Amino acid sequence: MRASTAVTIGAGATAAVILAALVQAAGDDPVGTALSLSVPTDYKTLIQDAGNTCSAVTPNLLAALLTQESNFNPKAHSPVGAEGIAQFMPSTWETHGIDGNDDGKRDVWDPADAIPSAAKYLCSIADDVKSVPGDKQSNMLAAYNAGSGAVRKYGGVPPYKETQNYVQSIKALADQPSSGSKTATTTQAATAINAAKAMLGTPYSWGGGDAHGPSTGTCCSPKGRSGKEITGFDCSGLTLYAYAKAGISLPRTAAQQYAASEPVKPGDVQPGDLVFYGSSPSSIHHVGIYIGGGWILDAPRPGTQVRYDPMDTMTDLIAVGRPVSRHNKEI
Q1: Which of 130, 155, 175 represents a domain boundary (last residue)?
Q2: Are 192 and 218 within one domain?
């Protein structure tokens, strides 16, 4: 799988230095290609991460392939024996399946294994057919459906109706614009900031906070701190609440909120944007709301309160995103 794009920066670095380092590490876009397809929230981070495994694959292409293969059903089983969300045949899984979540087993029925396996397999077959004439992406998708041998034999997409329709459907789906979605407006961002500011001084509560405001949390943080007896917010509870006041529904965790946001490039950061911290998209552990001047408003950790912090409050700033308002059933 691809190396992490996270950057470790010294605690005294300015926001501008951090963002510049992100550009250096990740190219023009610090978090890769944004998903424009409607994807179940549980799989967005997996697809975003795996969709950058190699240059031949994008998150949208991977999402389109999974839509075509199983419509994101992890229990899908075809009449010919293909299994799981990515519809691997058992023999192909045996050769190409990987332990994507490092739990010690390769499980075709587990999306955390099957989705990165699908991306790695796409990269492998893209290399297998790279010398075949024609559109490289089409040849790769055809090889996923019909096998690399068939693509090499026919010098491109084989003359099989099923495979030709498969390739056309996935490419059309991957290329479609976002359905009924737009990023937060400046008015919405200002509303979210004002809502968060009104919560300054509210206690941190692990698992606390929802769209209605502060709430008791859950147990337990990685260091064993419980929020069950504390009414307040954790980091993503605060951002969820703030944007709910602006009419935008965010998912619950920081990693899910990252997947539900559009990436923001250095130089384009605006007040109201969400600032994410973690070593990779799937391990994002903190989020705050950018308020300008290199500062964020956040709920940092157990024992603290909602407060202002410098943007470099943590050394593993990975990305900045702008919340998206979607007019469909998926966030």
Answers
A1: 175
A2: yes
pTM over 0.90: no
Q: Which amino acid is at 63?
A: A
Q: Which of 119, 150, 175 finishes a domain?
A: 175
Q: Provide the residue count of the chain.
A: 331
- Is there a single domain that holds both residue 115 and residue 153? yes
Which stretch of DSSP H or E encloses residue 215? strand 215-216
| 46 and 126 co-located in one domain | yes
Q: Write down the residue that tokens 């998912």 correspond to.
A: 251
Residues pairing with 276 in the sheet: 287, 319
Number of domains in the chain: 2
Rounded CA-CA distance 288/273 in Å is 8
| Full pLDDT tens readout for the chain, 331 residues | 233 333 333 333 444 444 444 333 333 333 334 465 668 888 988 998 898 899 899 888 999 899 888 889 999 998 899 999 999 999 999 999 999 999 999 999 999 999 999 999 999 999 999 999 999 999 999 999 999 999 999 999 999 988 998 888 888 777 755 545 588 888 899 999 999 999 999 999 999 999 999 999 999 998 999 999 999 999 999 999 999 999 999 989 898 888 788 888 878 899 999 999 988 776 789 999 999 889 999 999 999 999 999 999 999 999 999 998 754 333 3
CA angle, 253 then 110 then 166, to 5°: 100
Match 């384009």 to its residue by tokens.
Answer: 268
Annotated catalytic residues are: 69
Domain, as residue range, for 21? 15-31+180-326
> What span, in angstroms and rounded, lies between the C-alpha atoms of 312 and 289?
13
| Within a domain: 83 | yes
Task: Give me the CATH number covering residue 241.
Answer: 3.90.1720.10
- On whether the CB atoms of residues 300 and 22 are closer than 8 A, the answer is no
Most distant CA pair in the chain: distance in Å?
68
Q: Do residues 20 and 267 make contact, with C-beta atoms less than 8 angstroms apart?
A: no
Are residue 188 and residue 274 in the same domain, yes or no?
yes
- What is the spatial distance between Cα 320 and Cα 325, in angstroms, rounded to a whole number? 17
**Claim to verify: residue 212 and residue 137 sit in the same structural domain:** no
